[in-house]
Structures are given as C-alpha cells and as structure tokens.
Specification:
By secondary structure, this protein is α/β, with parallel strands linked by helices. The chain has 13 helices and 23 strands. The chain has three domains: 4-48 and 87-148 and 276-347, FAD/NAD(P)-binding domain, CATH 3.50.50.60; 151-273, FAD/NAD(P)-binding domain, CATH 3.50.50.60; 358-460, 2-Layer Sandwich (Enolase-like, domain 1), CATH 3.30.390.30. 30% of the residues lie in helices and 26% in strands. Strands 1, 2, 3, 4, 5, 6 and 18 form a seven-stranded mixed beta sheet that branches. A five-stranded antiparallel beta sheet has the order 19-20-23-22-21, with helices on both faces. The protein has a four-stranded parallel beta sheet with strand order 10-9-8-14, with helices on one face. Strand 9, helix 7 and strand 10 (233-235) form a beta-alpha-beta unit. The structure holds flavin-adenine dinucleotide and nicotinamide-adenine-dinucleotide (NAD). Keywords: FAD, Flavoprotein, NAD, Nucleotide-binding.
C-alpha cells in the first residue's frame, strides 16, 4: 500500500478555477496540492483557448484596421505570413507558461503533480501519473477539471479540425488555408470565422439553429450580424449531412430546411459545436451530484458534498476564464471560513465579450432576459455614429445600450456592439456591481476622445 499524503486543499485541475484558490490558501499556510493531466498550471485557457485564440485574433484585427485605413495614407492589403502569426501565438503561450512557473516557485508550500486524478472516497484522491499512482487525503477539495471539446458525429467529421488544432502550442494548423468551412456558429465558430476572413481566407459558416450566437440577446446579435463583413458566408438553419475528402481539401454536404442538399468546398474544415464539462472519475460514486451542465454547485461553489467545491467550466454556471478565477476565490474564501458561505459568485455582474470583428459584449441584465423574467427597465442609448473615437477609426457602426431600473435609475446591465466593446463592458460591469445609477454615470468625466464617453452620454439621455 502506497503512502497517503495528507493535505489541506487538493485541486483537481490547475487552470483558472484552481490556481487562484491554491495560491491564496498556500500563502495562508495551508498544505496545497494541485493535480493536472497537463503537468503545468493554466488549464485550457492558455493551452488552447483564450490567450492563443486572441493572439491570432489581434493580428487579424490589425490587418482589418489597416485595410480600412488605406484611404488615409497607409498601404491597404498587408500580406500575411501565417507561420509567423503562429510563432507569435506560441511565444505568448511559452512566455506565460514561464511566468506561471516562476510564480509557482515563489510559493514552496504549493505543489503541482502531473497526472489524472480520481476519487477513491470523499476525502481520498488517487493521481495516476508517470511515476505510477499517488494517493492524497484532503480536508477540502476543489474540483476544477474544466471542459473539453464536443466532436459532432456526422459522417466524415474526423476530417475536420477543432479549436485545439488551431490554437494549441505547436498547433496542427500552421498554414493559413485559402478557404475554411466552419460547423457551429457559437463563440468559437464566429470568432474564428471573422479572424480568418480578416487574414484573407474565404470563410463559410454552417449553423444548425435559426441564428448564430444562440442564447445571447437577440437585438445585440442582430446589430452585430449587420456589421460583420458580408464576405463571410453564414448559413443558418442548416443540417450537416456528411463531409468527404477531396483533392483540394474537404466537401461538406448540408441542407437548409427542406431544400435540396448543397455542398461547400474548402481547403480546411473546423468543428466548433460546443464544450462539455469533464467530471472526474469517481465523483458520482461518492454521492456527488451531476446535472445536465456539469457538477451541481451553488453560488458559494459548494457541491452536494459540503467539503467539496466545484469551480469554473465544470459546474457550467458561467464557462468563462474570469468567472473561473472569481469562483476559485469564492471557494477559497468559504474554505477559509470553515465551510460557511461567506462569499458568493454573482453571475449578474460578469462581463462577456464575443471577440468577433467587430466585437459584441454585455453584462448583467439584457433586454431578452428582462422580457423573459418580466423585469421592467428603461434604456439609455448611444450610437457610435456620433462618437469621436469611432469616427477617427472609421468604425461608426453599433453603440451602447444601458438598462436601468425605472425610478431609481440603478444600472442593471448593458450591451455594446462595435468599437472597444470588450474594454467598455468592464467599466459598465463595475458600475453594475457597484450599484451605480444613471446620475453617477452621467456625472463621471469619461476620457475624451475615447469610446467610454458613450457610457456617460447614454446615461445622460435619462437624467
Ligand atoms: C478556443 C477557445 C477560446 C476561448 N476564449 C475565451 C475568452 O476569450 N475569454 C474567456 O473568458 N474564456 C474563453 N474561453 C473559455 C475558457 O478557456 C474557459 O472558461 C476556462 O479555461 C475555464 O477554466 P477552468 O479552470 O474551469 O477549466 P480548464 O481551463 O478547462 O482547466 C481544467 C484543467 O483540468 C485538467 N483536468 C481535467 N480532468 C482532470 C483530472 N481528472 N485530473 C487532473 N487534471 C484534470 C485539464 O487538463 C485542464 O488543464 C475559450 C475557450 C476556448 C476553447
Ligand atoms: N469570448 C469568449 O469568452 C469565448 C470564446 C470562445 C469560447 N468560449 C467558451 O467556449 C465554449 C464553447 O464554444 P463553442 O463555440 O464551441 O460552443 P457554443 O456553445 O458557443 O456554440 C456552438 C454552436 O454550434 C451549433 N451547433 C451544434 N451542433 C451543430 C451541428 N451539428 N451543425 C451546425 N451547428 C451546430 C450550436 O447551435 C451553437 O450555435 C463557449 O460556450 C464559451 O463558454 C468563450
């Protein structure tokens, strides 16, 4: 029988849902071990998600902006050397892995073990790694095992790449395809479509639902779709029938509604049809509750087993990196409080951005949700057509829509489509979290000439 290591906190996974808690509790003097199959800290955000996809996206955004600037004295069409784009992406990933290794080295009481963790009982975990099995007995556990790619099952789907093939370190895709067909019109499909179109690839996107970005506010999505480059071919309500290999790449057969089957040819295909939570082996066997969106946890991140917390993508509450980080800290605070729920995750103040070109972002209450829940609201609106920064950049489409509680004019939420949306949503989110009112926003002297001026101007339509 191997030794059982006694620890205060054990995390399954070492991504954004794990390491903020691990660092906090290790610095507080607790014995902490993180286990991750990758053997490094950072999870999928750095391995194949947020950071690498946005490293490629920013190059594409620069090229799109350069093309728009061509009437104003800059050469228009920049050539793209995609191998160097990938090299940049890989370098950012490596730099961040090095940075995280240095951060780990500063906290000697924190250990990271490489291997797959599984529950033996509600306090005991086995980790299967290169050196065989190690066992840990933990007072507290955070399950932070994240999510993984869903691969669709249509015939020939294995011919298609996925987001890992595009964005992992040393990825499968190293050359820019001349044409790309993407299955799935969610976050990853639409972000990838707009970035590769901006890099010069001919892009078709096939979405099975009646609209792309389903589940997001319909007015915001409609405004965004009106601003996407019409050169991106988007087919909605389409059923994929099969994919085949051709001399020049792939052929995807699909049908829209009841119409006759059609085919799209492309050099490469990508599937982006969602992610599913990864529940560690043994969790259900020890009585842990799992629902359709992953491990069932409340907003204090506690599961049905009081000393086991679940944070990040694995609980399906808000599958975003910054939500994972916040939930990790919520779990840590509640563990430090002896299992009492002294802290809770607030899903009503989480900024979200779809990093398309242009961007769309929202936080808190949005019109569709307000209608669905019967919540009354009044709106303040600012069009980027009037905005000095938008005019300077030639990006005058879209605008800011803020939702306020009638009477008190407390800010409940907002949507932004267009210039700097991903940055503006942070300011609006902080105002929602801080329970600010239209008057507070109207009186704040946002900087000129930046798009944030629009936040105050939208509020001033009501006070
Ligand atoms: C292409 C792409 C782009 C994205 N872009 C954004 C973005 O711009 N902004 C944003 O906020 N979010 C983005 N996301 C989502 C973001 O990556 C996730 O929300 C975030 O990584 C969740 O963190 P996590 O710690 O919960 O899980 P993960 O990052 O998935 O980490 C879980 C870790 O646990 C490990 N693990 C799993 N099971 C076990 C086990 N049994 N034993 C040991 N280890 C295990 C996994 O290997 C993994 O390293 C993107 C995702 C993708 C795929
Ligand atoms: N900017 C961000 O914050 C960001 C960026 C990328 C990913 N993410 C995270 O990653 C998750 C996964 O992203 P995703 O884009 O893979 O999933 P998603 O759930 O956002 O979208 C999947 C889309 O694929 C469609 N679909 C499913 N099966 C299909 C089929 N057979 N044919 C055609 N369409 C089909 C769905 O209707 C849906 O529109 C997101 O939910 C999000 O949590 C976040």
């Amino acid at each position: 029988m191997s030794t059982v290591h006694e620890v205060d906190l054990f995390t399954i996974g070492a991504g954004g849902a794990a390491y903020p808690a691990a660092f906090l509790l290790a610095r507080a003097g607790l014995r902490v071990v993180m286990a991750d199959t990758k053997g490094v800290m950072s999870g999928n955000c750095l391995a194949e998600g947020c950071v690498p996809s946005k490293s490629v996206r920013e190059v594409a955004a620069h090229r799109a902006r350069q093309r728009r600037f061509s009437p104003w004295g800059l050469p228009g069409e920049l050539p793209v050397d995609y191998r160097k784009v990938v090299a940049h992406k890989d370098r950012v990933q490596k730099d961040r892995y090095d940075q995280h290794a240095r951060e780990m080295a500063e906290v000697p009481s924190l250990r990271l073990v490489a291997g797959r963790a599984r529950f033996l009982d509600d306090h005991t975990i086995a980790v299967e790694g290169n050196r065989g099995e190690e066992r840990y007995r933990a007072r507290h556990i955070i399950v932070a095992s994240g999510s993984d790619i869903v691969r669709p099952s249509f015939p020939g789907a294995d011919l298609f790449l996925d987001s890992r093939d595009f964005f992992a370190l040393n990825p499968v895709l190293t050359e820019r395809p001349s044409s790309l067909v993407i299955v799935g019109g969610g976050y990853i499909g639409l972000e990838t479509a707009t970035m590769f179109h901006a890099l010069g690839t001919e892009v078709s996107l096939i979405e099975k639902g009646p609209r792309v970005l389903s589940g997001m506010d319909s007015a915001m999505v409609k405004e965004l779709c009106g601003l996407l480059d019409p050169g991106i071919r988007i087919l909605r309500g389409a059923t994929v029938l099969k994919a085949e290999k051709t001399d020049s790449g792939v052929a995807l057969h699909y049908r829209v509604g009841e119409s006759s089957p059609e085919v799209v040819h492309a050099e490469k295909g990508m599937v982006a049809v969602g992610r599913r939570p990864v529940v560690p082996e043994g969790f259900e066997g020890i009585g842990g509750e799992v629902g359709p969106h992953g491990i069932v946890a409340d907003l204090s991140c506690q599961t049905s087993i009081p000393h086991i917390y679940a944070a990040g993508d694995v609980n399906g509450i808000s599958p975003l990196f910054h939500s994972a980080v916040r939930q990790s800290l919520v779990a840590a605070h509640n563990i430090l409080a002896g299992g009492r729920a002294v802290d809770a995750f607030n899903p009503a103040a989480v900024p979200v951005t779809v990093f398309t070109l242009p961007e769309a972002a929202w936080v808190g209450l949005v019109p569709d949700e307000a209608h669905r829940r019967g919540i009354p609201f009044v709106t303040g609106r600012y069009d980027f057509a009037e905005d000095s920064r938008a005019q300077i950049l030639g990006e005058t489409g879209g605008g800011i829509t803020l939702l306020f509680e009638p009477g008190s004019l407390r800010l409940l939420g907002g949507t932004i489509v267009g210039v700097d949306a991903a940055s503006l949503v942070g300011e609006i989110g902080l105002a929602v979290a801080g329970r600010l009112t239209a008057r507070d926003l109207a009186h704040f002297p946002d900087q000129h000439p930046m798009a944030a001026e629009g936040v105050g101007k939208a509020a001033r339509t009501l006070v």
